[in-house]
Fold:
Amino acid sequence: MMVGREVILKVEKNIAKPGDEILRVENLKVRDTRGLETVRGINFHVRAGEILGIAGVQGNGQTELVEALTGLRSMVGGKMWFSGKDMTGRPPRPITETGMAHIPEDRQRHGLVLPYPVADNMILNTYYKRPYGVWGWMMPEAIDRNARKLIDDFDVRTPSPYVPVKKLSGGNQQKVIVARELSRGIKLLIANQPTRGLDVGSIEYIHKEIVAMRDRGIGVLLVSAELDEIMALSDRIAVMYRGQIVTTVDAAKVTREQLGLWMAGAHPEE
Amino acid sequence: MQEKEGRKWWRNFAEDSISSILVPLLAVLTAVVIGGLVIALSGGNPFFAYAGLFEGAFGSQKALSETAVWATPYIFAGLAVALAFKGGLFNIGAEGQLAFGAVAGALIGYALPDWVGHDIPATLHVPLAVGAGVLAGTLWAAIPGMLKAYTGGHEVINTIMMNYIALNMTSFLLNGPMQDPVLTSVSSRTPPIAESAYIPQIFDGLRVHWGFVLALIMAVLVWLVLWKTTLGFEIRTVGSNPDAAKYAGINVKRTIILTMAFSGALAGLAGAIEVTGLNHRHELGFSIGYGFDAIAIALLGKTHPLGVVLAAFLFAAMRNGATRMQFLTQIPVDIISVIQALILVFIAADAIIRFIYRIRIKGERVVLTRGWGG
Structure:
């Protein structure tokens, strides 16, 4: 990173107080766009008020896993329960409405409509609901109020809510997504590479927000290829290798070196 | 945190707005200048020619009325293409949808009184005839919409192919099952529609009819739907970024089909209004080119309803004024096609205009089409 010093990603956080199970995944299988099975039978669960980190070298099935959980990609096999409901194979809207937030890996492809103003991007997945959409009509006042509040609350640096979001810096674009996703009444946050390519200030800000969500009792599934990020934020860590979870460990009882070995394919043995 | 935008946002906004009108204006200007050179090279006087063109388009009540008559199908069809563009779809099939709209409108116009066995009041007959045209255009456009949504078949190819089917089907119908039994020198046409299916004229003695007013109303409606409703938000989101639309929970397939259906409805309306408001029958060849000119109009109008209305007027004025120009200066009307083609070239390859006039790239580029399965 171009700051002239080693950046230490230390995040202030208390011990997690996990609650009920919010997401359960059993024997999930997903194919990628080429038709290869890149998620090959995965089992895990996330509880309310904890951060489960998924560590792994990029390309080990994390992208397909997250797309399947959020309804963007169909599952080939397995089951998924979210908030006590069987949500296997449901499309994005009912999953979002049940209380899932998604910070996508590719923010410009999935998370934003670049030519749209900041305000419209902040209601991208709630535009049809009151107060933004009433009887099929868009409500500019409500959209404006929401945008101004979120810009304020999440410290988005933009000259106006009506600037096309593509004109913002990468960090502020990501904040637009974070603001939109975290401001809804949510039960689970899936964050995939939430700080990739961002400046240090934005990284620290987003890390703080993720921990704050956990402390408010929201379950977090964090997917990242950054070992430091996984170590700094997670309460439990699942290591993904070649489409499978090789082991799940307590974040406080594992070393960076050990994780690195598992990510590279070393077999975990007691 | 460092901010990139040094300038005021409203300055960016103003520049974007100006730039979005500037390029079309300069494209028209440049095309007119080059057209003038072509006229001069062929031995004519471009100033007299353009004066004649202007007189023919705006010089009298009748000229104005005829310009509005020309503009009516251009507005409908231009809106059809522009709406599809907003949804990320390139509807080249407006021509075929328009033809089927005209056929369906004519059929209900002349045959319905026979089917029910007695006269129908105009308050019922006009909406039925126009509605039939809208329905025909809607269904015809929904097919390539479904092909796109469910198979990924590209709408550009499919709408071109559907044009061939529609135009040849029309030719068959007008020479066969729907042919006017009273044969004249023009044989490929339907019987005249019943007077109860006529859209009335606005002024006595002038051909401009209430369909023109409907066209202006439709422009406002399309604007309202696109920018003020959740449906319009869905259409524009699918058009701008289908991946983000899916993420936002929008049913992308359904939206693609709906967008094509709406686009076809507007094109079908263009055809049905020409039949019920102007020609009072469908004749082979009357509509050739409306659907294709509509693409140029939608692009020149930057796919915005207001821009479409302005561009439709420009094209209508040129088409209408050309006859007067030829009469006064013996310059063939075909020069108009040259100018219109030049306009389209400068809009599609706007880098030329930006280079000539040294305009920096600003504002939205119109995305004509995405690749296969895009």
Notes: The mean pLDDT of chain B is 89. Chain B has 14 helices and no strands. The first helix of chain B runs from residue 9 to 41. Chain B touches chain A at residues 1-5, 8-10, 12-13, 227-233, 237, 240-241, 243-251, 364 (CB under 8 Å).
